[in-house]
Specification:
Elements lengths: L1 E4 L2 E4 L8 H8 L18 E4 L2 E4 L12 E3 L12 H8 L9 H14 L5 H7 L9 H16 L7 H8 L4
Parallel strand pairs: 1-5
Antiparallel strand pairs: 1-2, 3-4, 3-5
Helix pairs in contact: 2-5, 2-6
Length: about 170
């Protein structure tokens, strides 16, 4: 099967019914997407398919052939962080960090559709579960990222982003 993952054509030799999560992790070594519950409840496995957040633990790989798949690995790099990643650091969102890749992907899909979400918009879009309960920080980080993207801070290093947006100095 041919898959378009993070803008690259990749070949998967998995059974068509294999969940996308396991193809990403076990066959293609893209381990940023996490296994949480296995029943599409927690959201740790969230990736984008054609720009939509989906739970990869229940998505058969056969359903995403010829679709554009985006994983956390494509969101940013340590040198060129996505504004969400910089905001996550500034707001000290992660505690254990396990759910964070799925949270970031859900937040990225939200900002792609709605660059200035309200609290209600964020609450409706962020259905991922966090056992550490950092939901208020997640909301603050999404607002911070939205503001930085609006103000043209996109793809700066974390220190530059924090200084420009009024974060820790």
């Amino acid at each position: 099967m041919q898959l378009n993952i993070n803008g690259q054509s990749r070949t998967a030799n998995a059974d068509p019914s294999t969940p996308l999560l396991w193809v990403l992790r076990d066959e293609l070594n893209l381990t940023g997407t996490k296994f949480g519950c296995g029943v599409a409840v927690c959201g740790a496995c969230t990736v984008h398919v054609n720009g939509q957040p989906v739970r990869s633990c229940v998505m058969p790989v056969s359903a995403v052939t010829n679709q554009k798949i985006r994983t956390i690995e494509s969101l940013g790099t340590p040198d060129q962080m996505h504004p969400l990643q910089a905001a996550w650091i500034a707001e000290q969102v992660p505690q254990c960090g396990y759910c964070q890749s799925g949270m970031l992907m859900a937040a990225a899909a939200l900002l792609d559709k709605n660059p200035q979400p309200s609290d209600a918009d964020i609450d409706a879009a962020m259905t991922n579960l966090c056992r550490c309960g950092t939901y208020q920080r997640v909301r603050a980080a999404i607002h911070r990222a939205a503001a930085s993207m609006t103000n043209g801070v996109k793809n700066k290093t974390p220190k530059q982003t924090l200084l420009k947006t009024g974060g820790a100095k």
